[in-house]
Amino acid sequence: MNLTRLALRNISGSSFRSWVVVLCALLVTGFTLFINLVLRGAETSLRLALDRLGADIIVVPEGTAGKVESALLMGNPVQVWMPQDTLEKVAAVDGVERVSPQLYLSTLTGASCCSVEDMFLVAYDPTTDFTIEPWLIDKTGGHLGLGEAVGGTYVFTPQGEQNIKLYGYFVTLKANLEPTGTGLDQSMFLTFETAYDVARISYSLADAPLEIPEDSISAVLVRVMPGENPTDVALEIMHAVPGVTPVPSADMFQSYRRQITTLLRGILAVTGITLGVSVLLIGLVFSMAANERRRELGVMRAMGATRGFVLRSLLAEAGLLALAGGITGVFFTTLGVYLFHNFIMNSLQMPFLLPSPAVLLAQMAVGLGLALLCVTVAALFPAFRISRMEPATAMRE
Fold first, then answer.
1. 120 exposed, middle or buried (CB, 10 Å; 0-12, 13-18, 19+)?
2. Contact 149, 189 (CB under 8 A)
3. Given pLDDT bands bounded at 50, 70 and 90, which one contains residue 395?
4. Is residue 93 within 8 Å of residue 224, measured between CB atoms?
5. Tens digit of pLDDT for each residue in 349-362?
6. pLDDT value of position 93
7. Dist. CA 368–CA 222, nearest whole Å
8. N or C: which terminus of the chain has fewer CB atoms within 10 Å of its end residue's CB?
9. Is 358 helix (H, G, I), strand (E, B) or coil?
């Protein structure tokens, strides 16, 4: 008899036990895939955010490093200021090659030009910038002019409009940056000149004006000289420039890295318990099934079926149930993560980037493989034990 047909007949004849195995395989696959998607997505987001910043060190006002990290990663509102002459002081520190200032402006809530709740405004100096400008030149072949901006992947021109309205000021969106899964995706980057022009117009055209303190900046991006250690240069900046906190890129987003590590430990503990319980439960189910089918299997042996055939038939049944549960778990987990990824990001308070199709397929294969492995291992001992029994012993009441 065909192994697959025999396995399907046995599955249909014991629907309750089959559903238990399918549910266990579903949980194993779902947990594994969810962990991979969320943690890999968070790690990728952190790496892309650092690449997007493109600085070896970020200098912010003293005591505001956590707020700036939260703004850059989660798009949370932040307004931090320090004197503009801080730029020259940082540039004069030994080991510093280039510096460029940035302004972190008010977050717009409910903006019609953003597919998420808030939009974070960041102003930069195009004459010194080494993060946005190189990408812009490569992407569009030019620089941002007055009234022009670059947006994250969630920023767009409203349908039917030619410009984006900010505080009563019309801004032209020149291009969109690649997604990072962080607050940078819901950020708009504009030049200092445009930011000051928006602020000027806002006092007469906006309900609430955009306020930029005079001679102030929010952060200084630093690129160190070749061969210099960013950590050592950061210490030099801290000693030479009072009232600032220099953060090397390697130490950036440490709180989020710790959060990911803590989450990973918790999820791994839950997953380990789930795997252990699932394997024990599946093993118990197959032991019960094998004992109930001793006479049937004994008859098969008496009619000429080999021990190997009996073993393979039981393992084929386990494999089919694992595939059914695994595929179901993959489908619903993937669907849930794609539909609710913003909810997951906000609930866990960490960045999250959806994987590419190729990476997703690889992670789905890992989940299915783990489900097959768990079910096969759980079913192997009872299947091996019953297949080794002599036909006469197996048919005995």
1. buried
2. yes
3. very low
4. no
5. 677 777 778 888 88
6. 93
7. 46
8. C
9. helix
Q: Does residue 206 have a pLDDT over 90?
A: no
What are the structure tokens assigned to 254, written together?
């440490």
**Chain center to CA of 50:** 14
Quickly list DSSP for 158-226.
PTT-SSEEETTEEEEEEEEPPP-SSGGGGEEEEEHHHHHHHHHHHHHHSSS-----TTEESEEEEEEPT
Q: What is the DSSP letter of 350?
A: S
Compute the radius of gyration of the chain from its Cα atoms: 30
Q: What is the pLDDT of residue 394?
A: 46
Residue 133 exposure: Cα atoms within 13 Å on the Cβ side: 13
Rounded CA-CA distance 48/36 in Å is 18
Calculate the average pLDDT of the chain: 79
Ordered by start, the domain boundaries in the chain are 3-45+257-395, 63-242
Could you tell me the CA-to-CA distances from 112 to 163, 382, 391 in Å, in that order? 11, 62, 75
| Residues 168/202, Cβ–Cβ less than 8 Å | yes
Q: Estimate the crossing angle of helix 357-387 against helix 254-292, to 10 degrees.
A: 30
Tens digit of each residue's pLDDT (9 = 90 or more) over 214-229: 889 999 999 999 989 9
Amino acid sitting at position 250: A
- The answer to whether the CB of 394 falls within 8 A of the CB of 296 is no
* Mean pLDDT (whole number) for 45-56: 76
Q: How far apart are CA 60 and CA 82, in angstroms?
A: 8
| C-alpha angle 191-196-199 in degrees, rounded to nearest 5 | 125
- In whole angstroms, what is the distance from residue 91 CA to residue 236 CA? 11
Task: Please write down the long-range contacts of 257-264, taking CB distance under 8 Å and 24 or more positions apart.
Answer: 257/46, 259/348, 259/349, 259/350, 260/39, 260/42, 260/43, 260/46, 260/350, 263/38, 263/39, 263/348, 263/350, 264/35, 264/39
Per-residue pLDDT at 177 exceeds 90:
no
Query: Is the Cα dihedral 178, 183, 188, 192 positive or negative?
Result: negative
Location of structure tokens 């790496």: 47
* Overall average pLDDT of the 181-209 stretch: 87
For the chain, strand residue ranges (E) read 57-61, 82-83, 96-109, 118-124, 148-151, 164-166, 169-176, 187-191, 216-217, 219-224, 244-248
User: Which DSSP state fits 114?
Assistant: B
Query: Would you tell me how many other CB atoms lie within 10 Å of the CB of residue 116?
Result: 16
The continuous run of DSSP H or E covering 111 comes out as: none
